[in-house]
Amino acid sequence: MLAACADGNFVADNVQVNAADISDPGVNPLMIPELLEPALVDGVHRYELSIDESNHDFGSGTAVETISYNRQSILGPTLKWTSNANVELHVTNNLDAGTTAHWHGADVPADDDGGPHSRIDPGQTWVADFKVIQPAATLWYHPHMMGTSAEQVFHGAAGMIIVEDDNPAAADLPNTYGVDDIPVILQDREFGADGQLSFEIDNDDDGDLNPDLTVNGTFDPYTTVPAGPVRLRLLNGSQARVYELSVDNGSMVKIASDGGYLPSPAPMDTLVLGPGDRAEIVVDTTNGPAVLIDAAFGRVLELRPDSTLPAAQFPPAQLAEIDRITVDEIDADRSFSMNEVGDGWGINGKQMDMMRVDESVRFGDTERWTITVEDGIHTFHVHQTQFQILSINGEPPPAEDAGWEDTVLVTEDREVVIAARFDSYANPDVPYMYHCHILDHEDLGMMGQFNVVVG
Ligand code: C2O
Ligand code: CU
Ligand code: CU
């Protein structure tokens, strides 16, 4: 059971974890996924990806069987996208099972989105091509196969996407990848007695929670950084776990939510990150080692300052303009109740059916969606669009939740109303998904389909 208190505590109280004492130093150097810059072919930014079986040492000396992209030992390279660029992504499936490649958080045409309808069979290559029409943000990619998303992601199939744009605020933020701009991919895992990964799907209210924390595939990591502001791009790539993060011996300000910069930096004590969510934070390491902490796992990552490294500037007061969605813009309302259905999970009483389109949105409309829960804890994720939170339990969102989002935590004590503009792409034939990003729930039916149609 998960205790979801009114003050935002989401600490699982029945799962033993192997926690690290924050007063000890980190043990293993944090693995930084390689940065994949595109090849420029006729003005198009082209990326080659493959998904393969691989092996990875998490830090215990065992070669653990994993799934990865581009033959990394685990995870995939970090893709760098540029706003307004035309991109082409070639994805080759070298697994002996089907997969897809979904660009989570990206505003792309439905047939380039990599949802369950864009299956890549073993040996096949799938090509997505689109223009990057969104601002700077931290997105990610992962498989979205009907019924096996949890298993493939748990084994390591996931990577980060960094979108860059010409916002002048970016130059004033820490932005040297792997040095003061660090990807932090949080995933809990379970290992069997043989040291290999041990996967299971859990029908429980809070999905399958695992006892060991890995950060970029590293147990108990530290990383050496400049003494000063350090940017962490937090990505919860876990099967089901919600993290409750804070910083010991350093301050934390949130500068970006799922879809990009906040209007201005928001100081925070505790940041709750549900499955699928991202947040960018800036941590100050001027006063010696700062430690990112989770309420269940203790130490997540030690930031070890080296004062010989050049330090960046602290974030500027203004980051981005956000065009707030107002109530008079709303053209349509819908509601989504996320609950148990049959022997699994569903939305509005229905389990996912690839042959059924559940909702039809009129191209150009702005919609308001109310999300409610009677049982379980869920993160509601919508493909294609970045939405805004209009209210949480009837109250306007706090500053740190008032940016662009594609994934939001909902519980029986946390009713969330969101709004989105569906004005970028229409396709009557290929639907987009909305679903719970607790991957157990998604694979057990908690997903629906909408299309965007001109009409
Ligand atoms: Cu992260 Cu439907 O996806
Ligand atoms: Cu997605
Ligand atoms: Cu769920």
If you average the pLDDT, what whole number results? Answer: 95
Judging by the overall fold, what is the CATH architecture of the largest domain?
Sandwich
The strand count comes to 34
Largest sheet: 6 strands, mixed
Q: Tally the helices.
A: 2
Overall shape: it is globular
In short:
The chain folds into 3 domains: 31-166, Cupredoxins -  blue copper proteins (Immunoglobulin-like, Sandwich); 170-306, Sandwich (Immunoglobulin-like); 327-453, Cupredoxins -  blue copper proteins (Immunoglobulin-like, Sandwich).
List keywords for this structure.
single chain; 455 residues; mainly beta; Immunoglobulin-like; 3 domains; 2% helix; disordered N terminus; binds CU-O-CU linkage; binds copper (II) ion
Explain how this protein is built.
- The protein folds into three domains: 31-166, Immunoglobulin-like (Sandwich); 170-306, Immunoglobulin-like (Sandwich), CATH 2.60.40.420; 327-453, Sandwich (Immunoglobulin-like), CATH 2.60.40.
- The strands form seven sheets. It has a six-stranded mixed β-sheet, with no helix packed on it. The chain has a six-stranded mixed β-sheet with strand order 15-14-17-22-19-20, with no helix packed on it.
- The protein starts with a strand and ends with a strand.
- Residues 1-9 have low confidence and may be disordered.
- The longest helix is centred in the N-terminal third of the chain and has 6 residues, at 149-154.
- The protein contains two helices and 34 strands.
- It has 455 residues and is mainly beta.
- The protein has helices at 149-154, 439-443, and strands at residues 2-4, 10-12, 28-29, 35-36, 39-41, 44-56, 64-69, 78-82, 86-93, 102-104, 125-131, 137-142, 159-164, 181-189, 212-215, 221-226, 229-236, 243-248, 252-257, 260-267, 271-273, 278-284, 290-294, 298-306, 332-341, 344-347, 359-362, 366-373, 378-382, 388-392, 407-410, 416-421, 427-436, 447-453.
- Helices cover 2% and strands 44% of the residues.
- A hairpin with a 7-residue loop joins β6 (44-56) and β7.
- It binds CU-O-CU linkage and copper (II) ion (2 copies).
- One copper (II) ion binds at residues 102, 104, 381, 383.
